[in-house]
Design goal:
With about 260 residues, the protein is an alpha+beta fold. The protein has helices at about 1-30, 210-250, and strands at about 40, 50-55, 65-70, 75, 80, 90-100, 105-115, 120, 125-130, 135-140, 145-150, 160-165, 165-170, 180-185, 195-205.
Length: about 260
């Protein structure tokens, strides 16, 4: 019994010494970094819309804390969720990493370009009566952060139309008139909107019934060809007939002469 107790006691001592050695080794490894920083953004940065920046260090052991400096502000933690106001087209953003055990710091600065909120309507300026035409509302706001709708402030367009998100399909009527198309994009987060307008003119359609036009054209061309060919053939026959009769008359009025000999 005493030997058994000693065996387990010795085994526990060995395990304890092994764990102590591992902890000592970990403590030695922890005194490293940060020596580099990676700043990442996942989407285009657009004024008025939320964007996310992350800051990380690959060799910070046991761990690092992160802080941000930009536009006179200090923000702790990563990722950084930021909505630029658009007053500047470029903003300097700095991230600082700090080792929680050694207190060592490392920082990196990047220039973040901020794009304005763009919106426009793609499509022709003139549309033909009775022909379906497609118009598209183009905007650089993230799909998940804004909604797009169509408005007709001067009245609904003539003819038939349908909308599906940022796409408008319109088959107009009433040539000679114009309609104003308005596309509105709305920021879901703050309710701000941006819009684009386009004036479209309706022209007369010059297309006719294809089957009737083809049949009439073919019939007319065929008759014209027959008339021309018939006239040419008749003229040739008449010419040959007159020429043959004349040659016969000349032959009958000519007397035979004896051959000349040398």
């Amino acid at each position: 019994m005493r030997r058994t107790i000693c065996f387990w006691r010795n085994l526990c001592t060995v395990l304890l010494l092994a764990l102590t050695g591992l902890n000592s080794q970990s403590s030695v490894l922890a005194a490293s970094g940060p020596d580099d920083i990676l700043i990442t953004r996942f989407t285009e940065v657009i004024a008025g819309f939320s964007t996310t920046l992350t800051c990380s260090s690959s060799n910070c052991v046991p761990q690092c804390t992160y802080s941000w400096s930009f536009e006179g502000r200090q923000v702790d933690g990563s990722p950084l969720i930021w909505t630029p106001d658009g007053q500047k087209s470029v903003v300097d953003v700095k991230c600082t990493a700090k080792n929680t055990e050694t207190g060592k710091t490392y920082f990196k600065s990047v220039k973040v370009e901020i794009d304005p909120w763009h919106i426009s309507i793609s499509g022709p300026d003139n549309v033909a009566e009775g022909k379906e035409t497609t118009f598209t509302c183009l905007t650089n706001c993230p799909i998940s952060d804004c909604t797009v709708s169509w408005q007709f402030r001067s009245g609904s367009p003539s003819g038939h139309y349908s909308t599906n998100g940022n796409v408008l399909r319109w088959t107009p009527s009433t040539p000679g008139k114009s309609h104003n198309l308005t596309c509105v994009a709305k920021n879901k987060a703050n309710g701000h909107t941006a819009e684009a307008n386009k004036k479209v003119y309706i022209t007369e359609s010059h297309s006719y019934s294809g089957s009737a036009l083809d049949a009439g054209a073919i019939a007319g061309i065929t008759i014209a060809c027959l008339i021309v060919v018939g006239g040419v053939v008749g003229g040739v026959v008449y010419y040959m007939y007159k020429k043959g009769k004349l040659m016969n008359n000349q032959s009958s009025n000519t007397s035979a002469r004896p051959a000349d000999y040398l």
